[in-house]
Write a structure and sequence with these properties.
This protein is an alpha+beta fold. It is about 30% helix and about 10% strand. It contains four helices and five strands; from the N terminus they run H-H-E-E-E-H-E-E-H. The chain has helices at about 10-60, 75-80, 180-185, 225-230; strands spanning about 115-120, 155-160, 175-180, 200-205, 210-215. Strands 3-1-2-4-5 form a five-stranded mixed sheet, covered by helices on one side.
């Protein structure tokens, strides 16, 4: 006896059920995928924190965000302590590894500005003036022992997702650093923490722990700037 084939109505019902199931499951699948990417990002930041700590222990100070020879902090860490390039790029970062000048993927040793994580330029990894000193300070280097509250001072975090703009005018995303409320207010979003993980970010603190910031605006409350952004909060040479 021949089997009766599906009618068009039955086929449409089956397709509708499948579409409904996909609509129900896709948000959960996307959320699970994003959670996995956030976990990888968190692991990357912990490893970078270890690399920065190893540098500090050997050199007796944290690296500058970018020194007067134009050497970025990540090149110093990559050269001797953390050579896996994937650690410097967040899986949720759509601009990861793309040079802002050539718009092409480049290896870390030749890549300018554009890693996924920025160090806190007001904290342990400052930017020097033309004489190689930290602005408003007679010292050049920041030591770990000079940081009084490492569990609350930001070391690095997801850097901004600003798109590439005209390099000829110097308008490139400064993604190797992040800055606090007062700098963002005056310099714009080029230095802001990225919001690539469900509209918020992973943050590494100076004691080595990584925290997810579900309330992004909490990072930029002016009354908390001294506690979370500005370091070392004591003498940079370590004297209490």
């Amino acid at each position: 006896m021949l089997r009766k084939a599906f009618t068009l109505v039955e086929l449409l019902v089956v397709i509708s059920i499948i579409a409904l199931l996909l609509a129900i499951l896709m948000p959960s699948l996307n959320k699970a995928r994003e959670n996995a990417k956030r976990a990888v990002c968190s692991s990357n930041q912990r490893q970078l924190g270890i690399g920065l700590t190893m540098y500090e222990q050997e050199c007796k100070a944290y690296p500058m965000s970018r020194d007067i020879t134009d050497t970025f902090w990540y090149r110093k860490i990559n050269k001797s302590y953390l050579k896996q390039e994937r650690v410097y790029f967040c899986p949720s970062d759509r601009y990861a590894g793309i040079d802002p000048v050539t718009r092409k993927k480049m290896h870390l040793e030749k890549l300018n500005y554009n890693v996924s994580y920025g160090v806190n330029e007001a904290g342990p990894c400052p930017y020097p003036d033309t004489k190689g000193k930290i602005p408003a300070s007679p010292y050049i280097w920041i030591k770990a022992m000079s940081i009084r509250h490492p569990a609350s001072l930001i070391m690095l975090g997801d850097s901004g997702d600003a798109p590439f703009v005209d390099y000829m005018w110097g308008m490139v995303p400064w993604r190797y650093v992040i800055r606090g409320p007062s700098s963002i207010e005056s310099a714009g979003d080029s230095y802001a923490v990225g919001r690539r993980h469900s509209r918020s970010a992973n943050i590494l603190y100076c004691d080595g722990h990584v925290a997810y910031a579900p309330k992004y605006n909490e990072l930029y409350r002016p009354e908390l700037e001294t506690q979370t952004w500005i370091g070392p909060q004591t003498d940079p040479l370590g004297r209490r």
